[in-house]
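pasting Membrane protein insertase YidC for the record, 433 residues
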Amino acid sequence: MDFGIGFLTNNIMLPILDFFYGIVPSYGLAIVALTLLIRFALYPLNAGSIRNMRRMKITQPLMQKKVKEIQERHKDDPAKLQQEMGGVYKEFGNPLAGCFPVVLQMPILFALFATLRGSPFADITYPVNLQILPQEAIEQVQPQAFSAKPSSLYIADGEHFPVAAVLPGGNRIGVGDTTAIRLQTPDGKSVQQLAKEFANDPAVFVPQWEVTKGQEFVKVDENGQITALAPGDVTVQAKVKGLAANKGFLFIKELGRIGAMGDDGEIHWDILGMVLFFGISLYVNQLLSGQSSSDNPQQETITKLTPVLFSGMFLFFPLPAGVLLYMVLANVFQTAQSFILSKEPLPENIQALVDDQEAKAVSADRGALAFEPGSRKAAPKEGTQSKKGSNQSSKTASKGRAKSNKASGKSSSTRSKGNKKSGGSSKKKVSNR
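structre below
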């Protein structure tokens, strides 16, 4: 019994999808409801991962510095090294703590992804590998029935059955022999019988047959009848139309549409729009969840390139429109969750680190004052200051003396001139006498 992704898909995802479709008969709304339900159920696990990333963005530089110091200090003492490392992880948190919630939710997300890639949203393919042998070799082979892995097939709204490709005589055929591939349920009901019983239009579920490998070794007709022509390995594929593949939702024309461009060259703008929006929402989510760092240019480059690479991947490896709808909704939900969690208060020790980093950033922006530690503007020494002061005072005094000398020189010259004048007048007076 399968307890993997197929079990989760058939026993959890599809019943929930049928439940929502029964409430609102729209497969697009059923995808929205199923996506939101799963994301809300995984909210606690995802929140733990986002909180851890937010803490690691703040503590990583200091944590790396401490780890390096501890490794250098206790490189010869593994026991002490392990003890000290445990203390660091206890103080700052374990960087790997956010991985466990992600790993735990992966099976559920893979099952949801597989559900939306299968019926009723996409065409279902049933590949069968055959081995064509010469007649003398086939006579020595014991015939044994062959059955491929079953896939759930929607025949009508809310009606789906596990259908597998079956070869009653086995998948080894002799040259010149014929056999037929049957698509049937485990209890033997064929797809044609199910379609007549449940489908509104049974012709929709007529399989389309194609030889995808070894076309020169076999031929197959429209009823799945295979004729072996020559020895070799062959792959024959049956394709059944998805029930909701051609149904639209909002701006999406077909939920089963694949690729940004059709076979006729027509551009599918609905697909392109969802791919573009997915890339934008992924970038915003990275910023909010703390995956970018302006202090680390390499991490900043990765943050910018990741949305471009993922969006481009969907253009080269296209997915059905219904799957893209789920991925866009899941990204929007996670972006909103990251925004809400970014407003939560940090633990006290982490908040202290944030405050310290902000204080250092402010100090670096305005520059340190003369009296603050680390300032390059050192106060002048007393001796130097007094020396400068005495030099300035001596210069001032010398300037003052020079001015006074000039003034005294002027006054003495004036007096001498006056004396000369008075001497001349007295001589004149004596001569007159």
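Residues 369-433 have pLDDT under 50 and may be disordered.
The radius of gyration is 44 Å.
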